[in-house]
Amino acid sequence: MSKNVTVIGGGIIGLSCAYYLLKEGHQITVIDKSDLKGGASYINAGYLTPSHIIPLASPGMMAKGIKWMFNSSSPFYMKPRLDMDFIKWAWNFNKSSTKANVEKAIPLIKDINLLSKELYTDLYNSKDLGDFHFDKKGLLMLYKTKKEGKHEKEVAKRAKNIGLEVKELTLNELNILQPNLSKELLGAVHYQCDAHTTPPEFMGKLETYLREQGVLFKTNEEVLDFNLSNESVKEVVTNKGTYPLEELVLASGSWSQKLAKKLSLTISVQAGKGYRINVNRTTPIKLPAVLLEAKVAVTPMKGFTRFAGTMEFSGIDNTIRKERVAAIGNAASAYYEDFKITPQEKAAAQFGYRPVSPDGLPYIGRTSKYKNLSIATGHAMMGWSLGPATGKLISEIITNKKPSMRIDGFHPERKF
Question: Which residues contact 365 (CB under 8 A, 6 or more apart)?
Answer without folding.
Answer: 374, 375, 397, 407, 410, 411, 412
